[in-house]
Amino acid sequence: MRSDVSGRLRALLMLAMALPSVAYAHGVAVGDKGYIMETFGTRIVPFMYLGAKHMVTGYDHLLFLLGVIFYLYRLKDIGIYVTLFALGHSITLVAGVLTGVHVNAFVIDAIIGASVMYKALDNLGVFARWLKVQPDPRGTTMLFGLCHGLGLATKMLDFELATDGLVANLLAFNVGVEIGQFLALCVILLAMSFWRRSAAFERYATAANVLLLFSGVALVVYQVRAYFTTAPA
After folding, report:
1. What angle do CA 67, 72, 77 make, to 5 degrees?
2. SS3 state at 130
3. Cβ contacts of residue 202 below 8 Å, gap of 6+?
4. Average pLDDT score over the chain
5. Which of 81-111 are b and which e, b meaning 16 or more Cβ less than 10 Å from the residue's Cβ?
6. Which is more confidently placed, 57 or 6?
7. What one-character-per-residue DSSP string does 57-110 give?
8. What CA–CA distance (Å, rounded) separates 139 from 152?
9. Is it the case that residue 37 has pLDDT exceeding 50?
10. Helices 59-69, 200-229: inter-axial angle, 10-degree rounding
């Protein structure tokens, strides 16, 4: 069992090292990038679509959300945590773009990878059982939501958005992000509900969180490598 886990970790780390260093976790498709950079005026529907598309294809967001809801069974609790994450994400996305706060994309994406690692470690009981310290789960969810939003804001600032219609387009984009988050969450919850009703959940829940942890490690390694190997623009 231990050798299998070690093998998976090595495979993920090798994949992270092999990926081209120009990609970002918050990457935007070439066609979408061109549209964002060239459009002007208020474009509500297109920017809502782009926001939803980003969230649905944003694997770092989805991995973190999976970790957040992994052991949440009541819809009320899920709603609270997802709302905290969405609130943090929205604050830094909008404020970051409007104020021009720019953070190195590799650094912020490494922090986002670390958020996946944190949630996996929390689910595995590392903080409570081993370190005898339990971070406030709601506070950390909000904190990492702020980090996730800052990552996207940083990427959008690179596109030099037109000032004409900026606020409306930005709000539409954020609404699209939340719509995409809701749709992705519905799929995740549906899959989780089926899995939880089977005996395999208790058998493989720990392994799933170990894999989630390794995924976060791979994301961090990839971004750190890219930071040191990518020449500044």
Report:
1. 115
2. helix
3. none
4. 83
5. bbebbbebbbbbbbebbeeeeebebbebbbb
6. 57
7. H-HHHHHHHHHHHTT--SHHHHHHHHHHHHHHHHHHHHHHHHHT----HHHHHH
8. 21
9. yes
10. 140
Q: Write out the DSSP string of 161-187.
A: --STTHHHHHHHHHHHHHHHHHHHHHH
The pTM of this model reads: 0.82
Say how many residues make up the chain: 233
User: Which residue reads 């994406």 in tokens?
Assistant: 109
146: number of CA atoms within 13 Å, CB side? 7
Domain ranges across the chain: 2-19+30-229
pLDDT at residue 50 in the model: 86
Closest C-alpha among 231, 228, 227, 182 to residue 75: 182
The single-letter code of the amino acid at 107 is V
Residues 6+ apart with CB under 8 A from 154: 26, 96, 101, 102, 103, 104, 105, 108
**Each residue of 72-131: pLDDT tens digit?**
999 999 999 999 999 998 999 999 999 988 888 899 999 999 999 999 999 999 988 887
Instruction: Compute the distance between CA of residue 14 and CA of residue 11 in angstroms, rounded to an integer.
Output: 5
pLDDT, one tens digit per residue, over 145-184 is: 999 999 888 878 877 777 888 888 899 989 999 999 999 9
